[in-house]
Amino acid sequence: MNVSVSIEQIEFFLLILVRCSAFVLTAPFFSTQGIPMRVKAGVSILLAVAVNAATPFAAVEYSSVLGFAMIVIREAIAGVSMGFFANIAQHILSFVGQRIDLDMGFSMATEYNASLASQITVTGSLYTYAVTLIIFVTNFHLFIVQAIIDSFGAIPVGHVAVDTNIVEVMAVYMTDYFLIGFRIALPMYAAILIVDTILGILAKVAPQMNMFAVGIQLKIAVGLIALYFMVRMLPGVAKMIYDEMMKLLSMSAVYLGGG
Question: What is the pTM of this model?
Answer without folding.
Answer: 0.74
